[in-house]
Amino acid sequence: MHNHENAPHLHEQHFNTPVQEYAPEVKQLVLDYTLQLADTSFILGHRLSEWCGHGPVLEQDMALSNIALDLIGETRSLYQYAAELEGKGRAEDDMAYLRDTVEYKNPLLVEQPNGDFGDTILRQFIFDSFHFFFLKELQNSTDHRLAAIAEKSLKESSYHIKWSSEWVIRLGDGTEESRKRIEKAIDNLWPFSGEFFMMTATEKALLEQGVIPDYSQIKQSWDAHVAKVFEEATLAVPQNVWMQSGGKEGRHTEHLGFVLTELQYLQRTYPGLEW
Amino acid sequence: MNTKEWPLWEVFIRSKQGLDHKHVGSLHAADAEMAVQNARDVYTRRMEGISIWVVESKHIHASNPDDATAFYEPANDKVYRHPTFYEVPAEIKNM
């Protein structure tokens, strides 16, 4: 992952400061959680990068790739921090390329296949609507590094949520075909929208420590934003949908294995290879 | 919209405060909002800009090359139109 375009902006105050003092059990929680956030951005960033060269038009191909790169940039900051927290000499690439499916803690939504453009837009919209409001709150984290990473990523996420929201409106209130596609995407993906707000044991413990925000408040912002965008898109917000979960605890859909197979192929086949 | 092609837009970028918007290229977009966002994604990835204008290409009216003689040549021998007798103050950088 040597991409200069996404090198962290080192002027952010806390990117260079050492890991703050934590009791060992709290430190483990922060580490687990940082990996969970990193995995989430990483897998979604990778999914979006699969669009590179396949976008419906050149301009949207670049929009998708730009968002992918933003997410990979956020991923790098998080994996670097995780490696520091762990303090066992592992680096960001080890975190990304040498962990197995069950160790990945991303919510199930982000590993779902790209499908058609409507599926990709809706997956992005569900994620952005969480990510944006989440980062806003994470800026107030008692963990200085996570707060600094949130502050930097929020600028990018502000654009992502605008982009995906406007596409939901365009597709929903567009042609007969575009509406059919986005409605199909809603049917497919809505069961994966609830997991973001279901708190795992790790998350509950970190909430008590003031490291992460209360998800119930973020859910209110999410609901309000989704309702507003869907109304403008003349789409109905699904009600009483049974929600899938498990990703944040390492229980994944069959798709993640295929994603990691491709992502990790090189490091698994030629361990330690650099170029 | 009857056609399947999105209309063409011309993109103008201001690279920094105090400079003019400059034509950088064109792109396709369904509406003005999308054109601004596409311009952001296509033309400002390497910190090229701080402001974007877009205008649908069909709204640009150009002079006819056949008129070049009548349009431009009469200015050739009117050197007195150049304000060459003024000194530009040092504080004025972009002129």
TrEMBL record, chain A:
Gene Ontology annotations for the cellular component aspect, listed alphabetically? cytosol
Its BP terms in the Gene Ontology are: phenylacetate catabolic process
Q: This protein's superkingdom?
A: Bacteria
Q: Which residues form the signal peptide?
A: none
* Record-linked Gene3D superfamilies: 1.20.1260.10
InterPro entries in the cross-refs = Aromatic_CoA_ox/epox, Ferritin-like, Ferritin-like_SF, PaaA_PaaC, PaaC
Q: Name one Pfam family in it.
A: PaaA_PaaC
Concerning SUPFAM superfamilies, the annotation shows: Ferritin-like
Protein name, please?
Answer: Phenylacetate-CoA oxygenase subunit PaaI
From TrEMBL, chain B:
Q: Which NCBIfam families match?
A: PA_CoA_Oxy2
Organism in which the protein naturally occurs: Pontibacter diazotrophicus
- Report the superkingdom from the record: Bacteria
Q: Which InterPro entries match?
A: PaaB, PaaB_sf
Protein name per the record: 1,2-phenylacetyl-CoA epoxidase subunit B
